[in-house]
Amino acid sequence: MVLGSCSPSHVKLNFMHTTGYYTHSDCLLHDMGGGHPECPQRLLSIQDRLISSGLEQVLQWPDCALATVADLSLAHDASYIEKIFQWDAELNDEAADEYAFKQIDPDTRMNRHTLKAALRSVGAALAATDAVIDGQFENAFCAIRPPGHHATRQRGMGFCLFNNVAIAILHAIGRRGLKRVALIDFDVHHGNGSEDILSGLEEVLMVGFYQHPFYPGIHPDKEASNMVNLPIKAYTKGAAVRELVSEGWFPRLQAFEPEMIFVSAGFDAHQDDDMAQLMLNTSDYAWITREIMNLASRYAKGRIVSCLEGGYDLNSLAASVEAHLRGLTDL
Ligand SMILES: [Zn+2]
């Protein structure tokens, strides 16, 4: 299997959950250079793990289109979208240096392939959402980059251009008519962009945890009532995190009765990931996935769309995604 070939040829065994795996070779061409941790090798390490574990044979590999400006406009201001397209045009000008970058923030930059990768990432999240709502798959995982949960309505930041998961949620509500959608964000960083875009929407409940104090350190003066974002001190272990989310998230999710669950699946809270200092291990990602599956089967007809966010240690990222996918496929 080659990234982007999206062959539907794999045989699916009937007794397993049907999981769509969305990815694309365009996502490998976005490269911020200079040993940047959010690198194409992240997707390749996951890909290698799918092959060595045999999961590749179990997943379905659908295709995905590029997102449109109308899709981006669900979550982002026109002035921001215009700026990114203008920068893309300048990067791809015939006279431009092919290795040039446009700096979005101190941590985030565009090369001449970045916009296409970002449009493919949003497109994957949208295609996965439609496929799950239409019953083509029970759930789906999007192995995409750039990630999205730091992108606010007005700007990209923190390795993120467009907020893949927030756009997919607003698509599910606005275009597909869902009334109650949950977002579960288990990336180690606060999903400030998702909070910015989704705050105050009665159709959305967002639950998350994040290392605190830590990047990005952007919080509204007063958190909206549809937000349950839990700060956690550095060096907290998985057992304590499980306890915290069991008490803090699950009662709210049960009361909300979501019709569909979206996941901002960052794996940078792993103890081997030195981007941050939380102490989760692979079994914690297996646990949290099982809990999300239980909630989805109870309230949401099993409907889950999970989108890759962070995770920068290549070994623990691949192992944690494998655990997550074993949960989603119920292996
Ligand atoms: Zn992160």
Description of the molecule:
The protein has 331 residues and is α/β, with parallel strands linked by helices. It has helices at 41-53, 69-72, 78-91, 114-133, 164-174, 192-198, 238-248, 250-256, 282-299, 314-329; strands at residues 19-22, 102-105, 108-110, 139-142, 181-185, 204-211, 227-232, 260-265, 304-308. The chain contains ten helices and nine strands. A seven-stranded parallel β-sheet has the order 1-4-9-8-5-6-7, with helices on both faces. It has a two-stranded antiparallel sheet with strand order 2-3. The model is unreliable at 5-15 (pLDDT under 50).
* Poorly predicted runs of 5 or more residues: 5-15
Tell me, briefly, the overall form.
globular
Number of helices: 10
Mean pLDDT: 95
Q: Spell the H/E element sequence.
A: EHHHEEHEHEHEEHHEHEH
Proportion of residues in helical segments: 25-40%
Distance between the termini: 21 Å
**Strand share of the residues?**
5-15%
What small-molecule ligands were found? zinc ion
**Biggest sheet record:** 7 strands, parallel
Find the structural class using helix and strand composition.
Answer: alpha/beta
Going across the biggest sheet, name each strand in turn: 1-4-9-8-5-6-7
Radius of gyration based on Cα positions: 18 Å
Q: Compute the number of strand runs.
A: 9
